[in-house]
């Protein structure tokens, strides 16, 4: 794996694209970002023609792998007839019906384009419904790059005034944020017990902390949040942009048996195309007919809607999730066993087809992880296996047992040299 063409492409991109990448965290890839020319199934090919087994899966959307023919066929058929039309079209409600059929609490939805946008829509609906302004989120959780939620990114940020997560953010909007600790039932009880005094409109929670170590909820955590929100008149919002439709067809509500008022979906719902949605109770969503503003030129565009409908149709087959669980379990067992050969190598957390490398005695984070991961990341890349700087691992139905076995063998070779 020479990587020479990617290095040259990165240098060229830096002369025209800020940071040389379309999304900032891609720049953290050592020795430099990979540039690809083709992607099929569970593999990508770089500009030199070298092939890699892909565990990035576009940072999560590709549950069915790259270029699933069922999705591509649906999109291609629509693309010849229309692109963005600025009017209603049947795919708008056909795709919505497919999503609502899958989601246990889905009565109505609003289309958007990205997770960041859809989170803001959900919070606006919650504020309109409650007449309150503050949002309770959980330390380390990522809900998009918007000023109002990109804060509280450290474990130490709990139960104290939120501070900006990076330069250039407006500190004034962070008075609207209250930060709790994931799986800390007692702290949630105390803060939500003061919901009226604190003016809390919504609880915003990633049910599995997808960007903060893939930490699963404890047995009582989500159900306690549901009870507390009901008791104190707070809207419960699940941010399922990553986990939704990846961990189960009905998302976290199906997997954990707790129904939020609203869920934010994205990534996996459109099989590699750009779309997101706020899904939930009709009385909340229908506030857009009574003055709550929701807009977007590209919302519900025919290309994305064709991708959503086709993807959701495929995901309706229970065999898809059985296959995802089997291949993900194989990865955890085989690749995890290589890490388990030494207490210094770390381990994996797993919820369904979403995994996270956890260093020995170390911490994980949105921007990367400590321990050996940087060494593993570059060492595996040079052997033809593509992973993420953050240590997250995404599996798909396109991955095979042979891919997993080859990955384990390559990791074993690498770690034996350390």
Explain what the structure shows.
The chain is α/β, with parallel strands linked by helices. 35% of the residues lie in helices and 15% in strands. The protein has helices spanning 4-13, 69-79, 90-102, 115-130, 185-193, 195-198, 221-232, 251-256, 282-285, 302-315, 318-339, 373-381, 401-416; strands at 36-40, 43-46, 51-54, 108-112, 134-138, 177-180, 200-205, 235-240, 262-265, 276-280, 347-351, 354-358, 385-386, 392-394. The strands form three sheets. It has a seven-stranded mixed sheet, with helices on both faces. Strand 8 (235-240), helix 8 and strand 9 form a beta-alpha-beta unit. The longest helix has 22 residues, at 318-339. One of its GO terms (molecular function) is transaminase activity.
Summarize the helices and strands and which ones pair or pack:
Blueprint: H1 4-13, E1 36-40, E2 43-46, E3 51-54, H2 69-79, H3 90-102, E4 108-112, H4 115-130, E5 134-138, E6 177-180, H5 185-193, H6 195-198, E7 200-205, H7 221-232, E8 235-240, H8 251-256, E9 262-265, E10 276-280, H9 282-285, H10 302-315, H11 318-339, E11 347-351, E12 354-358, H12 373-381, E13 385-386, E14 392-394, H13 401-416
Parallel strand pairs: 3-13, 5-6, 5-7, 7-8, 8-9
Antiparallel strand pairs: 1-2, 2-3, 4-10, 9-10, 11-12, 12-14
Helix pairs in contact: 2-10, 3-10, 5-7, 11-13
